UniProtKB/TrEMBL annotation:
<feature type="compositionally biased region" description="Low complexity">
    <location>
        <begin position="42"/>
        <end position="53"/>
    </location>
</feature>
<dbReference type="InterPro" id="IPR001466">
    <property type="entry name" value="Beta-lactam-related"/>
</dbReference>
<keyword id="KW-0121">Carboxypeptidase</keyword>
<keyword id="KW-0378">Hydrolase</keyword>
<dbReference type="GO" id="GO:0004180">
    <property type="term" value="F:carboxypeptidase activity"/>
</dbReference>
<dbReference type="InterPro" id="IPR050491">
    <property type="entry name" value="AmpC-like"/>
</dbReference>
<dbReference type="Pfam" id="PF00144">
    <property type="entry name" value="Beta-lactamase"/>
</dbReference>
<feature type="region of interest" description="Disordered">
    <location>
        <begin position="42"/>
        <end position="64"/>
    </location>
</feature>
<feature type="domain" description="Beta-lactamase-related">
    <location>
        <begin position="74"/>
        <end position="394"/>
    </location>
</feature>
<dbReference type="InterPro" id="IPR012338">
    <property type="entry name" value="Beta-lactam/transpept-like"/>
</dbReference>
<protein>
    <submittedName>
        <fullName>D-alanyl-D-alanine carboxypeptidase</fullName>
    </submittedName>
</protein>
<keyword id="KW-0645">Protease</keyword>
Length: 406
């Protein structure tokens, strides 16, 4: 199920990292927001520090984490999976200078009692948003667009389109209508195998009443990100999948990661996604149609590619330093579970990254810039009655173990 939520608190004070990011942006004279960015290579302007061709895949820390620490991590993961009755999960923890740990726990297929493996492909759901927003930020770094451009420059028919900026779409403060409506689901149930295009998803936003005035609230929706995907296509001249491949996946060597709207193309070994049975029986397997999520949630990845992406989000390797600082400026948002949601990524207790949930899966991909450590968790259970997010809870538990270990 696609999740929608509305903020109950207009704004929460920024975290220490976000405040530092805001100051950094001010220190460089508002480069990204002022509309004065020069084209790459012009006098006085550096070329994008994140030239995709110059970025290399970060290596995993050499060796294994100490055995005692591995056991504590495994115990924390097992407790979390047991607490939420999660059938199975894959997880990894990577700590520079100390080593790596990956694990596969439980079953990928309840009926067949087939085990999870660390090599499986997983839906990463809304972690896709962090890829989409990163491409927009890259294009801003390259002078191909400005973050204070309004969406009407790229997509016609969006209510308040002459006021909503690309930055507001990226940080979920645009107020744009969502395409996830009763009418959308009524059409969806008629043919649940239909592969939706970005244009079809975005058409559900056009002309619809705004949720609120741009910049006055923070409400997390897939519609914000799918409109940004249309901007990427307009600016690059490529379809979303092609732009993603060229700008991020190929440079980072993410051979196990793809944008896959058509579930028929998900052919790699993978788990089955489940939701709890309201009658308390065995969890219910879920049909998959990632196309209903579009560029907000239709990507798939592996554990090691998740490590690479966590490292990239935390380090800002694909972006200029001032752009990375800008993307860390965030606000309180009701859901998903973060301390703050910033610009296409969230922050939880100093860890930067993104969560994903829906249609039987949850995922969490985070990096701690202060230590360089990364944590990735993929789990095959979603939409718990109490709203808990199993992968995020597991991430927090693993981060707690690292904090205790010093």
């Amino acid at each position: 199920m696609i999740q929608m939520s509305k903020i109950t608190e207009a704004q929460r004070p920024r975290s220490g990292r976000a405040r530092a990011g805001a100051l950094a942006v001010l220190a460089v004279g508002g480069l990204l927001l002022s509309g004065c960015a020069a084209a790459p290579g012009e006098a006085g302007q550096p070329t994008a520090a994140a030239d995709a061709g110059a970025v290399e895949r970060p290596e995993a820390p050499a060796g294994e984490l100490p055995a005692e620490l591995q056991q504590r991590l495994q115990d924390a993961l097992d407790r979390t999976l047991a607490e939420y009755d999660v059938p199975g999960a894959a997880a990894g923890v990577w700590v520079p200078g100390s080593g790596s740990w990956t694990t596969a726990t439980g079953v990928a297929d309840v009926a067949e009692d087939a085990p999870v493996t660390t090599e499986m492909s997983w839906p990463i759901r809304s972690i896709t948003k962090s890829y989409t927003v990163t491409m927009v930020l890259q294009l801003a770094d390259e002078g191909e667009l400005r973050l204070d451009d309004t969406i009407d420059r790229y997509v016609d028919g969006v209510t308040n389109g002459d006021e909503i900026t690309l930055l507001q779409l990226a940080n979920m403060s645009s107020g744009v209508a969502d395409y996830v409506t009763d009418e959308f689901f009524a059409e969806y149930v008629k043919d649940q195998t239909h592969v939706y295009t970005l244009e079809e998803l975005n058409s559900g936003v056009l002309g619809a009443p705004a949720q609120f005035a741009p910049g006055t609230e923070y409400v997390y929706t897939n519609a914000n990100t799918n409109l940004l995907a249309a901007v990427i296509e307009r600016v690059t001249g490529d379809d979303y999948a092609t732009a993603l491949q060229a700008r991020i996946l190929d440079p980072l060597g993410q051979t196990g990661t793809s944008y896959t709207p058509d579930v028929a193309d998900w052919t790699a070994p993978h788990a089955i996604g489940y939701m709890p049975d309201p009658d308390g029986a065995a969890p219910l397997p879920q049909d998959q149609n990632p196309s209903i999520l579009g560029a907000a949630g239709a990507m798939f990845s592996t554990l090691d590619d998740g490590r690479v992406w966590a490292d990239t989000l935390g380090s800002g390797a694909l972006l200029r330093p001032e752009t990375q600082a800008l993307r860390e400026v965030g606000h309180r948002i009701e859901k998903p579970p973060y301390d703050i949601y910033a610009v296409g990524m969230g922050e939880t207790d100093g860890w930067l990254g993104h969560n994903g949930e829906g249609l039987g899966f949850t995922a969490a991909t985070f990096n701690n810039p202060a230590t360089g450590a990364s944590i990735v968790v993929y789990a095959n259970l979603s939409n718990l009655p109490d709203g808990a997010h199993p992968a995020d809870q597991a991430f927090r538990a693993l981060a707690g173990v690292l904090a205790d270990a010093g």
